[in-house]
Every structure is written in C-alpha cells, then in structure tokens.
Amino acid sequence: MSASLLTNPAWRRAWSLAERLSRYRQITDKTQIPIDSELAAETFSLWRAGSPFDKDSYFADRLAMEGITEDEFTRILGTPAEALVHNGAVPAWVQMLARAYSAPERPSEAQHRNWGAVGNHREAGFLNLVGPLMTDARLRLQTRVEKITRDHPRTPFDPARAVDILFANLPGRMLMMIAKTLVLELHVAKLQGVLHGATPAERFSSFTERLSRRDTALQLLSEYPVLACRLTLCVDHWVSYSEEFLGRLAADWSKIAKLFDIDPEGDALSEAAAGAGDTHRQGRSVLIARLESGLQLVYKPRSIAVDQHFQEFIHWLNEKGANPPLRSLKVINCETHGWI
Where are the domains of the chain? Predict the structure, then answer.
C-alpha cells in the first residue's frame, strides 16, 4: 500500500466539521494558523442564508450540537484543512481507498467492467473511475460469503454466484454518485485538448480510457475528496449489507423452506434487487429476492412485527366472513429482520 497515498493531504478536505474542530483545538498557538477571512465570511454567509439556518435559533442550536462557538466556526471555515493538525490516524475510508488503488490489476477486474445491466447506459464508461474500489469490494464480500457457507452447510447459494447476484446492485448506485461530476470533467478535458478522436463518441471513449488509469483516477478523486469518501463508504456499506443479507438467508433457510414450501436442497437464489423503498442505517433497504423456482421473497432489514400483525388482522377478517376473502401473505418475523 502506497504511503504517499495514505498521507495525501487532499483527503483532509473531506474532514467533517467535528473532525476539523477536534484538530483545530489541538493547535496550541492558533495565531500561527493561516486564515482566509474573505473565504470564511463568504462561506459563513452561505450557511446563514440556507433554511433553516437563516433563523438565529436554528443556527445556534446547530452550533450547540457540535459544541462549537460562532467564532470557532468562522475560523474553521477560513482555515485550509491541510493546515490543521494531523495526528497520524488515517481514516478507515482512506485506508480502503489506498488498498484498492494500490493493488495490482487482476484479470477479473477487466472482466467485470461490463457492469451488468448498467453496462448499456450511455455513461457506463464513467465507472472505470471506481473500478478498483468495486473490485476490492467484491473480493472482500467473496471472502465473507465463503465463511457463511462454511458455517451453514445448507445454503441456497454458491459463494461466487451469490457475489455476482449482489454485485448487480452496486454499479448503478455508483454511477448515480459520479455522473454529474464526470460530465463536468469530460468538458474540462475537452477544453484542455487532452482527448483523442474525431467524433464525440471517440473522445468519450478516450476520456473513459483515461479514467481506467489509476494515476488519473486518483488525481481526479483527490480533487473531489468528499466524493471519494462517499464512494468508499458506499462500497463498504454494500459489502456489509450484502454479507448481512446472505448470512441471514443462510441462517433462516430451513424456516423459509418450511413456511414457503420450498425444496431446501433443490432451490437456489437467482436474483436479489436492492433499493426497494428508502435506504436507512448505512445503505440498508428492502431487497426483493427471487429463487430459481420462481418464488419471490421480500427481505426487510428491520423488525416486521407490524407486517405480521396486519396479516393476522387479515386472517381474522377472513374468519369473520370477509367477502371476497382478502389475500394474505406468509411472514417470518425474526425481530431484527423479516421475510415476506
């Protein structure tokens, strides 16, 4: 792993307000800190102009949440992150980024650059920017899924196949995060005259080929450190959520097979579409899983006690003679999650 990549001061510009405040307070002689007063005043005005911070009470409450004074806040706005104390602790997201872009390119990395269904999108080539991140995420998930299959001998999935199924959810999410930024950078590269080709399609291909070079990708990400942080956290959350889903599917498989009348030996996972409904708690969302038999399971990463009680209510109505009878769903409530 490249030491220069880990210590690149550009990543400090992704520090949150709380992180900047902590490092600002570690500086003993604050008179030595270079402060851009004009930038501080301009940024402060932007904060105060936005709702609800245009109201004094909301703004004061927000500062109180961070335990920061208005004077400290103004000073931090005008202080370059690079000038703040760096205590040597490298954030986990920077370590992940460094590991992904320092690793040698594997044959499988180029193979997965068709990006599944997203590969047909006209901007799919932008994903070359985050190819190493997604490859690293796949490898981490593969290791975790292999452990799941060792811990649960009867699982409705093969590790490699399961990773492919869950990976289908990731490229679209990443493309949505980077598309606008890269459209801007595409125009910048065109104005700089660094693209090759006589047609727009050829120049676009030239641009996406440049994105696949790790030095170019890292240079661009260092210009957008907050985006780099968000992208890295996105793939990390995908790994955790995918592992959680597959682990729970394996642990609950006997109950699922019994309630939904599935052959526990012959059926297997064939599709898993995430993003149904809102996302919560580090990217978790309702997931629609389909088995080879055609059965569709709804996985909810939270208690489904309300869903269970509603189905019991429907059963009660049917017993009382509801006409026509209402359709009910089978539900497994596992407290922390559930299946429908």
Answer: 3-90, 101-244, 305-339
Range 71-77, long-range pairs (CB < 8 A, 24+ positions): 72/21, 72/24, 73/17, 73/44, 74/40, 74/41, 74/44, 75/24, 75/30, 75/33, 75/35, 75/40, 76/17, 76/20, 76/21, 76/24, 77/39, 77/40, 77/43, 77/44, 77/47
Helices 70-77 and 17-25: angle between axes, nearest 10 degrees: 100
- Amino acid 312: pLDDT: 94
Q: Which pLDDT score, from 0 to 100, does residue 80 have? A: 84
pTM of the prediction? 0.86
Mean pLDDT of successive 10-residue stretches along the chain, which has 340 residues: 76 87 82 85 90 88 89 89 75 92 70 63 90 95 96 91 94 94 95 91 93 94 96 95 95 92 88 73 81 92 91 94 91 92
3-state secondary structure string across the chain? CCHHHHCCHHHHHHCCHHHHHHHHHCCCCHHHCCCCHHHHHHHHHHHHHCCCCCCHHHHHHHHHHHCCCHHHHHHHHCCCHHHCCCCCCCCHHHHHHHHHHHCCCCHHHHHHHHCHHHHHCCCHHHHHHHHHHHHHHHHHHHHHHHHHHHHCCCCCCCHHHHHHHHHCCHHHHHHHHHHHHHHHHHHHHHHHCCCCCCCHHHHHHHHHHHHCCHHHHHHHHHHCHHHHHHHHHHHHHHHHHHHHHHHHHHHHHHHHHHHCCCCCCCCCEEEEEEEEEEEECCCEEEEEEEECCCCEEEEECCCCHHHHHHHHHHHHHHHCCCCCCCCCCCCEECCCCEEC
